[in-house]
Amino acid sequence: MRSRNPVFSRRGFSRDNGYAGFNAAPQAGGPAVGTQGNPYAQPAGNPYAQNPYAQQDLQYGAPQAPVTTAGRMTMDDVVTRTASTLGVLIVTAALAWALLPVDDANISRSYGIGIGAALIAMVLAFVQSFKRRPAPALILTYAAFEGVFLGVVSSVVDNRIADGAAMQAVLGTMAVFAAVLVAYKAGWIRVNRRFYGFVMAAALGFILLMTVNLLFAVFGGGDGLGFRSGALGVVFGIIGVILGACFLALDFKQVEDGLAYGAPREEAWLAAFGLTLTLVWIYLEFLRLIAILNSND
Questions:
Q1: In the predicted model, what is the mean pLDDT of residues 254-269?
Q2: For position 69, what pLDDT does the model report?
Q3: Which of 100, 139, 238, 274 could bridge 110 with an S-S bond, Cβ 3.0-4.6 Å?
């Protein structure tokens, strides 16, 4: 099964791409589910099955060679790559906040730069999503441009709509991340095919509604259909945060499967990319919610 995340679904840790998928747990006394077509999965009955030196040692009664994990993704790899990606994003966001003022004389120029950076980041995200292998330079470049956009839009909301909005959105994003991680590790969130299907259907409907609303706003003026303003905007903002939390659970499951089935170390960059996309989604939804709640309109 493919992940909802375009980063993972293109060449991520999904069973049909040679890695683990949902409900792919090892079975006692037999090969792990997903072993067929998975060059990285070790049969549960013989952990040395893919080590020719271990096989030779067994034949001659010599001590068994240890199973090497060199070249496989580890949790340290995921944490390091994610920290690097988010670090680049935060640095460029801070620079954009400091160097692109949003006063009356400069807001048009700064906002234009921010929108341009967002479009570049979107293109880079699509390019990475359709590449067969993760490209660290491409991922970090995406993070840099995404940071510029976030820095500008955060500055606009914080300085012109709601003082302290950016910090509130950051705290909200961190709280959602921590809550989902705890719930996932405690087993309160069960990521299975039904959960995946529900999240995908809800996300598709949400994106379609927001796209229609944007088109009405662009061509009809005003707030479009009102999905992003007033009481209805608050409701859809909360739905957006909840969807982001569901995406995080899917991301955690994909990372867990990749670790369990020995995905290559380079796949840690895909994990970092996917987690960054989801965290950006949640942050923007929080920022939008705060802006709506503090609007004087």
A1: 92
A2: 55
A3: 100
Range among 31-35, 128-132, 135-139, 229-233 with highest mean pLDDT value: 135-139
What is d(CA 156, CA 196) in angstroms, rounded to the nearest whole number? 35
Could you tell me the CA-to-CA distances from 168 to 183, 199, 239 in Å, in that order?
22, 26, 18
3-state SS assignment for residue 264: strand
Estimate the crossing angle of helix 193-220 against helix 230-260, to 10 degrees: 140
Q: How many CA atoms lie within 13 A of 253 on its CB side?
A: 30
Q: Collapse the DSSP code of 72 into the 3-class scheme (helix H, G, I; strand E, B; otherwise coil) and give the result.
A: strand
Return d(Cα 118, Cα 139) in angstroms, integer: 14
Which residue is it, tokens 């039904």? 194
The Cα 163–Cα 153 span in angstroms is 13
Q: Name which of 195, 172, 173, 285 is nearest 249 in CA terms.
A: 195
The C-alpha torsion from 268 through 269 and 273 to 279, rounded to 10°, is: 50
Task: Please tell me which residue, 63 or 167, carries the higher pLDDT value.
Answer: 167
Q: How many other C-beta atoms lie within 10 A of the C-beta of residue 60?
A: 6
Write down the mean pLDDT value for the chain.
80
**CA 281, 282, 286, 287: dihedral to nearest 10 degrees?**
-40
